[in-house]
TrEMBL record:
Belongs to the SecD/SecF family. SecF subfamily. Residues 363-388 are annotated as: Disordered. The chain crosses the membrane at residues 198-215, 222-243, 249-270, 301-319, 325-351. This is Protein-export membrane protein SecF. It comes from Chloracidobacterium validum.
Length: 388
């Protein structure tokens, strides 16, 4: 962690999140290659399908997450859009507008500028601009009604307009490959604030569980459980740093889940230790702890094993968006199960022995009979009377 650092995702390092809807089913490799040509590192770009199955347009949606590379707030959005326009699908000619990207005002301004129908000459001043604006709004409304993307310019219904208006539209515009549905910008300051909040939330969770265990058991049990949880968190963070897996908000959710899951296993073992101590007060604490671990071992292994299978399915089939979450859970469950058995209980045992060794050995109390006999033996022997 000290040498390699962390691969912070867009949530913490800042960046751009775009929801892009394509005309046809998108090719993720082509999208990644287009962004690479646009100046983005492929290993820093996250592309994920939205997962919706309601319509064809929803199946054509993808999330694109990229690091922030431009100082301007809208700079990355503009840069990503230009990269996809130039390197994905069939590029729109430079002298034409992309109907899947432009707004009604831009389209109306281009139609008015070229005035292919010569409405400025035949209509009163200002009427030509209004007619082109009404036409442009009709086109954009049909695009939005179709899910945000048009696949064929000839399918636009323009029955209420002059047929030559459709010819003018084909002269000034063309159909692009995609439409940017939404865009979110996460600044570095927001990412820093999210990172600090995530650390605070994790600390508060551990402190709260420490208080609960101290109340239900003893504070020594709580300290041992928290040490085991800290071990799990550090191991997971270390592996994410070693392999440079991305850390996002879903990773924080996985860490909090891991903290609770590991603490649950530890409490099960501690509860069995407490039950055994009530029945075997005179026996060695190490033997009691060992028996408690053995009695709960099958329960711990079976429960953790079944959870591990579910998490393994997430790792294999969950996709890029769930990658941080599933990997953190996979590592955390493995080491969380280990720490509950081999760290929490040994720490508790060490703590108990440490304080027992520091307690002074009390002198055994003397009984009255032994005290009297000692005094008698200590007193001088009386002289016997002379015999005759």
């Amino acid at each position: 962690m000290v040498v390699r650092g962390f691969n912070l995702g867009v949530d913490f390092a800042g960046g751009t999140k775009l929801t892009v809807r394509f005309v046809s089913p998108p090719d993720e490799n082509q999208i990644r290659d287009a962004l690479r040509k646009g100046g983005y590192s492929p290993d820093k770009v996250v592309i994920q399908r939205t997962g919706k199955q309601l319509s064809q347009s929803d199946r054509n949606e993808v999330f694109i997450n990229t690091p922030q590379t431009e100082a301007d707030v809208d700079g990355d959005k503009r840069k990503i859009t230009e990269a996809l326009q130039q390197h994905y699908g069939t590029p729109v000619p430079a002298d034409k507008l992309d109907l899947n990207l432009v707004g009604a005002s831009t389209l109306a301004a281009r139609l008015t500028e070229q005035d292919l129908l010569e409405l400025k000459k035949t209509l009163p001043p200002g009427e030509a601009e209004k007619e082109y604006q009404r036409f442009a709004e009709q086109v954009i409304q049909q695009r939005d009604a179709a899910g945000g993307t048009l696949s064929d310019i000839k399918r636009i219904s323009l029955a209420s307009f002059d047929p030559k208006m459709a010819e003018a539209l084909e002269q000034v515009a063309a159909i692009g490959s995609f439409n940017v549905v939404s865009a979110e910008i996460v600044g570095p300051q927001v990412g820093k604030d999210l990172r600090n909040r995530a650390i605070i939330v994790t600390i508060i969770a551990c402190f709260g569980m420490l208080l609960f265990i101290a109340f239900r058991f003893e504070w020594v049990y709580g300290v041992a459980a928290v040490i085991a949880v800290v071990h799990d968190v550090l191991i997971t963070l270390g592996l994410f740093s070693l392999f440079q897996w991305e850390i996002s908000l879903t990773f924080i959710a996985a860490m909090l889940t891991l903290v609770g899951y590991s603490m649950n296993d530890t409490i099960v073992i501690f509860d069995r230790i407490r039950e055994q101590l009530a029945q075997r007060r005179r026996e060695d604490f190490a033997a009691v702890t060992n028996d408690a671990i053995n009695q709960t071992l099958s329960r711990t292994v079976i429960t953790s094993g079944l959870t591990l299978l579910s998490v393994l399915a997430l790792v294999l089939f969950g996709g890029e968006v769930l990658k941080s979450f599933s990997l953190a859970l996979l590592v955390g469950i493995l080491f969380g199960t280990y720490s509950s058995i081999a760290i929490a209980s040994p720490v508790l045992l060490w703590w108990k022995r440490y304080f027992e060794q520091r307690q002074p050995i009390a002198a055994p109390a003397e009984s009255p009979s032994s005290s009297a006999s000692s005094k008698k033996s200590a007193s001088p022997r009386a002289k016997s009377a002379p015999t005759r």
